[in-house]
Amino acid sequence: MAGSPESLSGQDVGSFAYLTIKDRTPQILTKVIDTLHRHKNEFFEKHGEEGTEAGKKAISLLSKLRNELQTDKPIVPLVEKFVDTDIWNQYLEYQQSLMKESDGKPRWFHSPWLFVECYMYRRIHEALTQSPPIDDFDVFKELKEQNFFESQESIISLCTYLQELMRTIEELDEDQLKNEFLKFLQISLWGNKCDLSLSDCSLT
User: Fold this and answer.
1) Which residues are 107's β-sheet partners?
2) Who's near 154: CB < 8 A, 6+ residues apart?
3) Taking the chain, what is the end-to-end CA distance rounded to the nearest angstrom?
4) DSSP code per residue over 142-167
5) 107 within 8 A of 73, measured Cβ to Cβ
6) Of 57, 47, 29, whose CA–CA distance to 140 is shortest?
7) Are 105 and 74 within 8 A, CB to CB?
8) Which stretches of 16-170 are assigned E, i.e. beta strand?
9) Maximum CA pair distance of the chain?
């Protein structure tokens, strides 16, 4: 029996994984850094000079992360102790055990794409965690709220359809139930069209 195929990675030039790591993730980090810059006055108003310095620290950490990514540096363990830190670092050790390169270190373009992208978001969280008192600042809040409110018409239409379906579902035969299931499955899949990461943090 054939083994599992290799994970998608940035080594496959021109692939979705390659374009994600080369283009999308640096753009996401740039948007995050820009958001922190735009809120520097808010940090000062809430926390004084401590807030200003915290903003600078978070920007510095994220700029360093972006450089590591763009230059294909080794992926480093998380340092801020959090509930999931050990799990992340253990998985990083597992990835290192799979590496075939001479230095044996997982890198941004050589590690599985899904791991790399999730790790980037975890490092964003770590950068904020290391920067109190702005450690609870949500760098994606504005985009999430804007996307939600601009999608309200679609959300209401979908909820209305679902409510009507639930009232009549007992009357549907097997083929009709299958069709309804496929409709909602397709809606779920197309929901990725509004994924902020897939749109480089811009609205679709």
Assistant:
1) 74
2) none
3) 42
4) HHHHHHHHHTHHHHHHHHHHHHHHHH
5) yes
6) 29
7) yes
8) none
9) 66
Tokens of 172: 């549907």
Rounded-to-10 torsion of CA 187, 188, 190, 191: 110
| DSSP annotation of 110 | T
- Please report, for residues 41, 46, 56, the alpha-carbon distance to residue 132 in angstroms, rounded to integers and kept in the order given: 16, 12, 11
Give, to the nearest 10 degrees, the angle between helix 25-38 and helix 113-129: 20
Which candidate, 25, 21, 42, 20, places its Cα nearest to that of 138? Answer: 42
How many other CB atoms are there within 10 angstroms of residue 200's CB atom?
A: 14
Tens place of pLDDT for every residue, the chain, 204 residues?
567 788 899 999 999 999 999 999 999 999 999 999 999 999 999 999 999 999 999 999 999 999 999 999 999 999 999 999 999 999 999 999 887 655 678 999 999 999 999 999 999 999 999 999 999 999 999 988 988 888 889 889 999 999 999 999 999 999 999 999 999 998 887 776 556 555 544 433
What pTM value is reported for the model? Answer: 0.82
3-state secondary structure of 128: helix
Residue holding tokens 């992208």? Answer: 117
